[in-house]
Amino acid sequence: MSKWVQMRQAQLAKQTANDTREMLRLQEEQASAARIAAEAQPTESTITPERVASLEARVAMLEARLQGIYDQLPSDQR
Prior knowledge:
The protein is mostly helical. The protein has helices spanning 3-39, 49-72. It has one domain (3-77). The chain is built from two helices and no strands. The two termini are 27 Å apart.
């Protein structure tokens, strides 16, 4: 195996490890947000259309980041 192939495999392994760590971090962040939301005692004054839109946007952004990381994983690691 050529040195270039070995170096490329090492780069890909490192990137995969980094992506996996980031995906786990985002999953932990998502789980934490879900726990906080479940524990919250919302009142009429805290549930505003702006707050809902803000939270929906945050969820969409996190889902997109997770999907991007997932899409970069080799098929045998999905």
